[in-house]
Amino acid sequence: MAITSRQHPLVARFRDAARGEADGIMLLDGAHLVGDAVRAGVALLLAAVTPAALENDDLQALVSALGAQGVEVTLVSAAVMDAISPVRSSSAIVALAARPPAQNDAVYTCAAPLVAVAVDVQDPGNVGAIVRVAEAAGGTGFVAAARSASPFGWKALRGSMGSALRLPIIAGVTADEAIDAARSHGCRIVAAVPRDGRPMFEADLAGPLAILIGGEGQGLPAPLADAADERVTIPMQAPVESLNAAVTAALLLYESRRQRSAIRHPTTKHTKDTKTNDDKTQERSL
């Protein structure tokens, strides 16, 4: 029997999670995120789905996977789904899950960490996009520092497209704490600045690295940028003066990946003329 009342306690529970008012609980909106959570081994607590959605074979398989893990799946009417799904066009399935535990050590476990550090990035969509590109570029972790939006809010989770459920994340720290932790693990601190830094393609981004990305509009605080080991600027054609925070992170992370790959797989020069001097001498004598 489907829940049809928008006054049902379940609705309040999902809404609290969407507002970030449910301690330690995150809301996963949509089949993609819920499926990623199942595959990542996230502790799912409760899922809600509409009867009509169950006519979809893929969604039926997802609900079966949830049931196999002992997750309670509740049927709700379309009106109730509209109330508990925070997106404009409500999803077919939403779920509540426990936030992943703090992963401070996991961010720096490899020999050459590559960590994206968001400082005062307040747009949750940008935070999610940075998490996504950090995983895509082979980063080892993400840090949400200072006044950055939570990477586990529903908007950031959707923006990350599931990456926040897999990539080691540190959240709720100050910028100084984030930098101290990175330095203690042997990372150089690179600050992304809109001007007067070393051009991106000339900077050394191959070693253990923590890349600081500033917030929308104001960028990194000057004291943080000045204290970094390297200030890096992305070349831009005038009159453009700055780039979106997530775009900046993507360019720098992928340039780091390119440099690291070049070190691991150096290009070997091949010449077309492989004949020895003796061969050439013999040819001239014929």
CATH topology of the largest domain: Alpha/beta knot
Write down the overall mean pLDDT.
90
Note the main sheet. Answer: 7 strands, parallel
- CATH homologous superfamily classification of the largest domain: SPOUT methyltransferase, trefoil knot domain
Assembly type of the shown chains? single chain
Order of helices and strands: HEHEHEHEEHEHEHEEEHEHH
At CATH level 2, the architecture of the largest domain is 3-Layer(aba) Sandwich
Can you tell me the CATH class of the largest domain? Answer: Alpha Beta
Spans of at least 5 consecutive residues with low confidence: 270-276, 278-286
Structural class category:
alpha/beta
Rounded to the nearest angstrom, the distance between the terminal CA atoms is 96 Å
The percent range for helix content is 25-40%
Tell me what you see in this structure.
The chain is of the alpha/beta class and 286 residues long. The protein folds into 2 domains: 90 residues, 60s Ribosomal Protein L30, Chain: A (2-Layer Sandwich), CATH 3.30.1330.30; 159 residues, 3-Layer(aba) Sandwich (Alpha/beta knot). It is 36% helix and 19% strand. It contains 10 helices and 11 strands. The radius of gyration is 24 Å and the shape is elongated.
Question: Secondary-structure map with pairings?
Answer:
Layout: H1 9-18, E1 25-29, H2 31-40, E2 44-49, H3 57-68, E3 72-75, H4 78-84, E4 93-98, E5 114-119, H5 124-136, E6 141-145, H6 154-160, E7 169-173, H7 175-184, E8 188-192, E9 198-199, E10 209-214, H8 222-227, E11 230-233, H9 245-264, H10 277-285
Helix pairs in contact: 2-3, 5-6, 5-9
